[in-house]
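Worked Example 4.2. Consider the chain below.
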Amino acid sequence: MNNDIVGGNLGAGQDAGVVRVFSEGLPAAATDAEIQRIRKLGGENDSTSREVARYIADVGRSYDAGVKPLLIFRLDRFLRGGDHYSFNQQGFAAVRFTDFGKTSTISIRTSAAKTHRIWDLPKFVDFEYVAHVTQLNAATLASLASAPALPANVKMQTKNLENDTSLTWDASPEAAAYEVVCGSTNAADWEYVQPVSGTRATLSVSKDNEIFAVRAVDAAGHRSLPVVPEPQR
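Applying the procedure from the previous section yields the following structure tokens:
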């Protein structure tokens, strides 16, 4: 989780209640074969980085950190880049936290170095905003650290391509239960949660219209990252 430009200077165009969370779609490290598979399954919006972003959004709903994550489904700001991309290129899930918008009161940029000399001063920092972003980071890390291991070998049964959707997975040793989550293909976040006690679930929901994933839940209610299934005939 890369925090880059989270000083929160509250000039024009800023919002003290929001922090942007950028995440890549197609993984930078994906091979040509993997990209073809992702496109075939319609999984362009479900990279591991994007699941981390959704996890941060869920943490933001569960804990009041004083700032809410705004999911931006782009690798980074328009035509820009950040340090998290180096991790994406190596196959890691990585996201970027950035405050809502940069002020334009000092917009003349003769060089990158000049821009940094102008802006990188304590007088431009809203320390309360930085503290709230830090709290959101800490809550996310604590939730991930407390969560059970991800369910492994998550599969969607496709032998008959029936309207119902059946999912199977291997047990997570720390899980007390599981949750199947799903959402419309055009939804930004998960829209439906189905608690499951075992390692198999069948939902009367068409796989044509929804994206599915499975996450493990421990006895205290901590949730793992969701795992999108692979088809199995």
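The first strand starts at residue 2 and ends at 3. The chain is about 25% helix and 25% strand. Compare this with Example 4.1 before moving on.
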